[in-house]
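Re: weekly structure request thread

Next one in the queue (556 aa):
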Amino acid sequence: MSAVVLALVSSCQEPEYIEPTTERQGITSLTAYFTLGKFVDQELAKLVIDDPEADRYVIPVPWFYPEESEDGTVIHMTRARVRAELAPNCKIEPALTILDLTLENRFTYTNAQGESREIIITGVRKKSSKADAMSFTLSKPYPVEGFVNDEKSEIYLFTTDNLDGFTADVKVSAHASVKTDLSVARNYNEPQKVTIVAHDGTERTYDILKKYPTRIPYGFREKSVRQLFNFEPVTRLGFPQYTTSVYPSLAYIGGQLVVCFGDGSAPVYLNALTGVKEGNVTLGSASAGSVTNDEGGNLIITSHTEAAATCSIYRTKATDQAPVLFHSFVNDTDVPVGYHVKVHGNIDGDAVIILSHEGVAGVTETSKYTKVVVSGGAVVSTQVYDLKDLGLSWADLPSRVPKAVSASTNPSDGLFISYYSRNILSYINGNGTIAAEFDFLNFGATGNFGTNCLDAKTYNNATYLASLIISQFPHWGAGPRLNLFDVTSPTSIKEGKPVLSNNEIEWFQEADAGCAAGDVVMAPSADGFKVYIYYFDHNCSVLGGYVADCIDMNAI
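Done, posted below.
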């Protein structure tokens, strides 16, 4: 499978001199930044300029910011800091500062040839034209998840069931509305339609078609990969500041992204497609040291446990249903456990759960992990392993502890492990020896980075390993990096060839070094057609996600 390379371009923070796109092009872009409120110095809007002769520039300001919020941008238009990207020897007078974009602001622009003209810089609030179906579900008499094909404006119902007499629900773009009354029962065995109206009145109609599912033979479809979101979660969601010592972990369940901080608070859950916060996980009597998900739609929650105490592993099928105890064991080691848990497989069938231990703060490192083997939906063994004979050990800080993950659902297939400051991805086979390694230095992961965030899942006959390289020092220009490896043959990691890569993730905290912690998680959808990947770098204050599918589009 050839590599899919995805790059996100960071927003410009300072005026930048660049080569003109045409001989006489001098102004390449105008960017407006917030000067008020919690988004100060972040980008509000950007106008990319392609007409070298233009003398009136209108910056399109979103109606709401963030887009999914109800926070209008009128007040920000009146006090926006505007910066220009100019070619060499071009200038704007007087200098751009804070402008009222509800007015027509007049300046003199001089190009590289010394020719001057008056220009106007203003702005306009723009309602969103997005009218997309984010998800579609037949809701009653029982749920059937639809598959949205945006390229063709079609929604597929992949099932052989009789779909007569169903009502439906659709999640749409922020501030869009649904014109079609989906609460009316319809016969979805026959083609139907749903029309969505954007905030600006733009309409989009999707055809709803019952189809028989056809998959490509292996892995995900390269052209299907798309980013769901990538944003700064502190101001948007109220996440802890980068200076706060937390132990983040992620999980996906039933269309929701769960974020646990390991600080005693209830994990929060977000809409997994948009990143909008929807509530807090119902914990009941459970204690949340960390979370993850399996491949069967289960949310797994572990308690954090000191030495000689009992560690509990809970499970639930929904964020609003109190979890029940799945397994417990006595942590008969000399170091704590429970902040780092990963599951490969389905705990309703066969799975391997790995809990990485952390050292005791200021006292000792460790090289231990606990492996819980599940067969036929029941735990058949719980065993502690020690990697000290391989020369591997890590410290107590969250940026130092690996999130080790099983290579498959077969406990004899070994595991993957990486951590700061070794920063080498190792495959340890079932015999307990290092069978293959890859040095993350080949990806530029020096001591400024940590490589402890891993997750592995099996999806459509392929096994994938996700790696998030988190930043130790954001203020030194080190940002997070996401890579996905095909590890169906585990020793292939030595080749270091990702099938998906984003080493230019846009990140938002560049002030100083804080708590270098984070997580990455993968999850196949319940119907097996999609796979989700989410990442969180606490130090860089960035949360994001991707989705891909395995649909054979040629067969539709």
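The domain at 13-126 is CATH 2.60.40.2340 (Immunoglobulin-like). The CA atoms of residues 144 and 237 lie 30 Å apart.
Next request, please.
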